[in-house]
Write a structure and sequence with these properties.
Pseudouridine synthase, 7 helices, 3 domains, 4-stranded mixed beta sheet, 10-stranded mixed beta sheet, alpha+beta, 16 strands, globular, 336 residues, Structural Genomics Hypothetical 15.5 Kd Protein In mrcA-pckA Intergenic Region, Chain A
Length: 336
């Protein structure tokens, strides 16, 4: 017997009872076998990323198990997670235990507030000035995030996050409107040709001017299951990480020494700026993970994605939000 031969069913012949649906449309019923036809929007996308986008809420490990177990097929053939999809491919997905969600109900006020926060838009992408306190995508108990809300209020079938920023971080978020733009922008991120600039308010007063923080970062999990990051120079699993910082202002806030710092991450690690600044003794104000003894009294993480330098574009900026700017002294000079 051939150990690799499929055992659960014969190859599918499409008929009126089993027509593929466009992969641009949401899956309506996860309890049945679904056949999705790849469109130009998913052309050349890896299979695992394709599935992650359509089986939201299903653990990544489960998706890889489905692929290994032959519960996912492309054109009736076995496949691997890293296989690239082509336009008009048919992806078969076996039934999964995944609760379907109703479309998010987006209030008119919230919809208008998001649309008003678009600071740049062209045919391929838009850049949103995300407010603090809103996640970039749904999951982990959240009905929706920025990307789901933007799809709903714009009516666009194809909108994808180019990158992510933390829920409590405000500022610039790139969203692609075309698959080609997504690939180009993400390749820039891989090649490190996009420079992100953040502004933050941090404890203490580092020396004025510029310095580089070069400290490897390791992800770990608390007993509660919550994920954290720390500097670890011993563990071989720790990843090389560098952040350039520049101190723009030093001042007093409620008798506490505070600095306005510009941070430029040269690598893209989880919580990188927050952990690096805490590591050198200047944790960000309002950081409930890495500044647990914060006594500043601020009610948000004082970290703002301020500027994007993207090849072929003029610099894109988002002004410091009022709930951070109000803490600065009147004479403070913001970077341009």
């Amino acid at each position: 017997m051939n150990d690799h031969a499929p055992t659960h069913e014969a190859p599918v012949i499409f008929n009126s009872k089993a027509r593929p649906q466009s992969a641009d449309d949401e899956i309506g019923n996860f309890k049945k076998v679904n056949y999705l036809e790849v469109t130009r929007h998913q052309h050349d996308q890896r299979l695992d990323n394709f599935l992650l986008n359509r089986l939201k809420g299903l653990p990544k490990s489960h998706i890889y198990k489905m692929i290994r177990s032959d519960e996912v097929r492309v054109n009736n053939k076995r496949c691997k997670a890293h296989d690239r999809l082509q336009r008009e491919d048919i992806v078969r997905i076996a039934p999964v235990q995944l609760a379907t969600r109703e479309k998010p109900i987006i209030s008119t006020e919230f919809a208008n507030s998001l649309l008003a926060r678009i600071v740049y838009e062209d045919d391929g992408m838009l850049v949103l000035n995300k407010p603090s306190g809103i996640a970039v995508h749904g999951g982990s108990g959240l009905d929706f995030g920025v990307i789901e809300a933007m799809r709903e209020v714009t009516g666009k079938k194809y909108l994808e996050l180019v990158h992510r920023i933390d829920k409590d971080t405000s500022g610039l978020l790139m969203i692609s409107k075309k698959r080609s733009a997504l690939k180009t922008l993400q390749q820039h991120l891989v090649d490190k040709t996009i420079q992100k600039h953040y502004l933050c308010l941090a404890n203490g007063q580092p020396v004025m001017g510029e310095q580089r923080i070069d400290a490897p970062l390791l992800r770990y999990t608390l007993a509660s299951g919550e994920r954290r990051v720390k500097v670890d120079v011993q563990d071989p699993q720790a990843k090389e990480s560098q952040t350039d910082i520049k101190v723009h202002e030093r001042f007093k806030m409620s008798n506490q020494s505070v600095s306005l710092i510009e941070a430029k991450p040269l690598t893209g690690r989880t919580h990188q700026i927050r952990v690096h600044l805490a590591h050198i003794g200047h944790a960000i104000l309002g950081d409930d993970k890495y500044n647990v003894h914060d006594k500043s009294g601020v009610h948000r993480l004082c970290l703002h994605a301020w500027r994007l330098d993207i090849p072929g574009y003029e610099a894109i900026t988002a002004p410091l939000p009022d709930d951070m700017a109000d803490w600065l002294p009147e004479q403070a000079k913001l970077p341009k």
